[in-house]
Records
---
Amino acid sequence: MFNNIDINKMNRLMEENKDAKQIISRLLENHHTTVSMIAHEIRNPLTLVSSSLQIMEAQHPEVKEFYNWKQMMEDVQFMCNLLNELSSFNKSTILHHSVFSIERLLRNVAVSFAISLDAAGSDIEFTSHIESGIGDFTGDKVKLEEMLLNLLKNAKDAVEADGKISLTAKKEEDTIIIQCTDNGYGIPEDQMSSIFEPFVTYKENGTGLGLSLAKQIVEAHGGKICAESTPGINTTFTVTLPV
Ligand SMILES: Nc1ncnc2c1ncn2[C@@H]1O[C@H](COP(=O)(O)OP(=O)(O)OP(=O)(O)O)[C@@H](O)[C@H]1O
Ligand SMILES: [Mg+2]
């Protein structure tokens, strides 16, 4: 894995030398494609294994009593999620632009999230305040939705059973400011600098790709993402997107 010093050196090399820039860009592209292909190839048979296990469980419910069955199902699901995230992680800088109402997108995401909480019988209090008149936005709708869902999922993971989560959005001059706040366990100061790095997770079953994916998506749109947290009180992720 590259660290910040390596990345700075690479950027300097690319600035100083056009040939190096071309070769490093091609190497990076090649690396991304290889990782995506491997993730994709492993995901296909794994999805078959996962479906077979689910059918087996439906036809023979007694298997649920097997020692470690539940754990195994969770592990298989985790591997499927990891491979999904890995392949989208590598595609997160390639945007498919369209012009759309970001206000509608935010409202849809809020409604889907509220429905998912309801469906799970959750007591989490979710509120959203999306300013009207935010207007149209040019960007990748699917990726922005993925980014927002990652922030909301993290908030949900962080709060207590009766915790609070809010999603707000407003326009300020030429930027759209989206904030996701929760009153969960928060992020200790010593973890703050690493949470956006790929594969950094402090959760038992986390992949550590959610926030790095979110950051790549926001930055590919020319925006910024940052986090502020007072552990035990509240945590806010702020996404600023230029219009
Ligand atoms: N709202 C939040 N409150 C507290 N901690 C958070 C919050 N959002 C992120 N974090 C911290 O940042 C870490 C990295 O988050 P990220 O989304 O990248 O990975 P993850 O959530 O651990 O795994 P995955 O996204 O695959 O479920 C988390 O493990 C968690 O410690
Ligand atoms: Mg996450």
Note: The chain has two domains: 4-89, 98-242.
---
Amino acid sequence: MPISLATQIPGPRTREALERGRFDMQAGYRALIIDDEASHGCYLVDLDGNTILDMFSSFALGALGYNHPRLLAAARSEAVVRALANPTSTPFLTTHSWLDFVDRVAERWAPPGMHKMYCVDAGGEAVESAIKAAYIVHGERKRAGAGKPRDPLELAPAEQQAILENRAGSKAVVVSFGGAFHGRGLGPMSATHSKPIHKADLPCFEWPVVPFPASRFPLEDNLEANAASEAASLEALAAVLAKHSGNVAAVLVEVVQCEGGDRYASPDFFRTVQKMTRAAGAALILDEVQTGVGVTGSLWAHEQLALDEPPDMVVFGKKMQLGGFFAGERYDISQFGRMYQTRNGDRARAAIALATLEAIEEERLLTAVRTQGEYFVEQLRELAARHPTLVSQPRGVGFLLAFDMPTPELRNTFLVRAREKGVMASYTGTRSVRLRPHLITTRKEIDEALAVFGAVLDELV
Ligand SMILES: Cc1ncc(COP(=O)(O)O)c(C=O)c1O
């Protein structure tokens, strides 16, 4: 199903459809309307019959492309039909299908050292929940240290009243990194620093922010500069942890900063961050909303960091089809009522998540992503060598791929022209092109994308 263009993109039917649904507040954001019955594998088909190669996967949400038979079968299964027809508040009342999902994830797919899982809807909500878990454990420990009951329900009535009236909120902080993106809820947003538009006019916690190293590529040519920026970041982290000593609930970090521009730090950096976080008595929360579920060539990107011990929490979303977090033993918040949403544990989406994880395993997609990802990044390096004034910093691990362009304007033009020629890619940071191929993407499709990128760059020279 190679790229085939019947009209300009967007064509007349798509343009007409883009005018519909205007009651939807986000209608103006939309780039395309697709025919998702006709779309297949890595190719989406728009309403004008244009077949477009999808190197974007809806901000890394899609894993197995369009109309994957296993996902279709799961979606048509009795378990999904019943889950949709008979909604339940899963923490309180559930069915076998949810228990199957939880047991299978625990047995096969949870990162090593994780003790529990907590599921919500999306990534930002999952980060919010992990932050809550960190605060709860921090608060319980503090109270226990002060000789008070761990359980807030055992506090004196006046103290409970102070809690209800916002007079006893935690003064502890969550440390995050410059350029990070952790979601848009009022909690995670205080740890999000990628674009002012996300936060303008909104209240934020005054939590400390530490610069993120942002390695320069190729790594072997930038050893000194990268080591210096990591050292500076660690020094800033040490200063923040010292300043807020005893009052740090969590250090929250992405394994690769995705929305911030696909920015990397070394495994050594993360190992040191973990040691410092542990010494500060805080939770290390790894946000794997975008890096998780195979896109880096391991199921969880942090497996490639070889940390000295498991992180305290690992947050997931996007490709997992549910949001949530895995927690180490210390962050198991099992007290009734502490973490509860009516829609925790969506059984329908859990069935799709299970089918996704099974397909990744059975189709050996982690190996494929590693192999094809290496090829892709090599080809991006060649593209940079051929177009040194336009393409720089080609980088990637697995199918988490990016390169920089000289200005935001040129990057945006590149993306529009690539789409006009039938390849959908995405932006990140201020001037980076982000590629997030579906995990099933083959070399032939990579070559097809590269040919389009080459043609666009030739036009832009
Ligand atoms: C690392 C990271 N964390 C959290 C989120 C928020 O996820 P969602 O948009 O599903 O709320 C995103 C979304 O891009 C993300 O990339």
Note: The domain at 110-332 is CATH 3.40.640.10 (Aspartate Aminotransferase; domain 2).
---
Amino acid sequence: MLQEKNLGAVTQLMMGREVEGTVYYWTAAYLVDGLLVDTGCIYTAPELIEYLRGMEVIQVINTHHHEDHVGGNDLLQKEFGLDIYAHSQAVSLINKKMELHQYQELVWGYPVPTIVKPIQDQIKTEHHCFQVIATPGHCADHLSLYEPKQGWFFSGDTFVSEDQKVFRADEDIVGIIASLQKIAELENQELILFTSIGKIFPEGKASINKFLNHLEEISAAVANLAAKGLNAEEIKISIFSRESGLAPLSGGHYSIQNLVDKLLTRASPSRQTAIDYT
Ligand SMILES: [Zn+2]
């Protein structure tokens, strides 16, 4: 399913696999001044093509290599002959078959591997100039787009909510915090954040700072409980009461426990958490 939302100069395209009339997870792409930011998953690729037919799409970028951001690449290239750009580290990842967990296969599916080009520092459209900002952490090849005159910031999966507590097993919390601090230090006093789950944060810097404070509060609580001798599971229950329902659905790949484990490792880098995510 694809739903369009007009946000003035920016158009939001919400896309998600429909199963018996229900979409279980939406991913947002954005269309602004002929630039398409992300391409959804493979299941929604035909709808994206039909939506874009007759419209002026000149450039396409992928914020990162994950399957819900590159799934439309193949058809976009075949139907419109478009070049697609991504972080240099994403190029080889997008051009090979991904390894997906079962839940990812069900919700987003395997994208067709595509050849994308390494992005430059800037993307110019007819009316705007976007700075390409490396925002690693969610994954090493993540980038965001920043348009200083408008205060627009397309954050991909780097920032999705002020109180996120469920994280992937392969995310780098130190990198995430550094990327968030980088965004909070941009010269614009106000940023409008366009996230990949579709939520828009009009007071973006305040939202980023809330999220940073949220992570630091959890981090302090984790360190405090670890010092008292609680193990990782006990710390999670003590702070959050229970695990997210997404943890069993994803085989532990997406969980609150991941955040606790990462914060423990951050507090004490020699500490290794041995959890089987398979
Ligand atoms: Zn992602």
Note: Residues 2-205 form a domain with the Metallo-beta-lactamase; Chain A fold (CATH 3.60.15.10).
